[in-house]
Amino acid sequence: MPRASSLADRLFWPIVAGGVASLWLGPGALAAAGLVVLGLVAHRLGRGGRFRRRVRAIAHRHRETLALRRRQESYVDPYGNEILDGWLRERTYFAERTVLPRLEAEGYGDLIESRWDEILSLVEAASLSVAAPDETEALPEDGLAYERYCAALLERAGWEARTTRAAGDQGADVVAERDGVRLVLQCKRYAKPVGNGAVQEVVAARSYWSADRAAVVSNAGFTPAARKLAAATDVLLLHHDALLELGARRGGRQR
Fold it and tell me: pTM of this prediction?
């Protein structure tokens, strides 16, 4: 990456040119050069503010997705602590893949390293700027009730959904159909991120039920191992909030 010009670099030639011109053209040329110098100084000093506004605008454009991902990647452990590890990884991913390329393309690449914490702070603010959905009922505490809760969310989204029997479900807690597409779900009401065992189970369920799509649904996020396996097996990893907007489009590989 080429070295960004410093303020001194930008001012050097206008000052030199103004000084030389004043020898022939008098004080007017020196005054004009002074105005140019002042303009460059003002522009440079305002660069930090423009940088912040640009980051804020990029994050604001994605605020609803960021808010949803924050909810999906956070959970409360049995001791009442809010665990944000998954969300912090997601926040960094967004900053690196979405914010940084735009900043570099717009000439702010030299500010990224020194203002990295500021970038993350602005992304965090955007994720908190959208109010969480108003849940009219408490999240079910036991697994079977959570399965019924997920099936009900799918029904609201236009699916015909039913829970399976506890025995003989072959890894599917919920089977749903819509527009000729069959979906199988593994539903995990956990106090910690879901591992790749749930992904393995729903892959088997997809084959057993001859389903087009398969997903693991949880309130507590997913481990890196689960995400890697889901990406390799074309399994959706979802927070239960996402069920309300889940369409019947086939596919949907997760990163």
Answer: 0.59
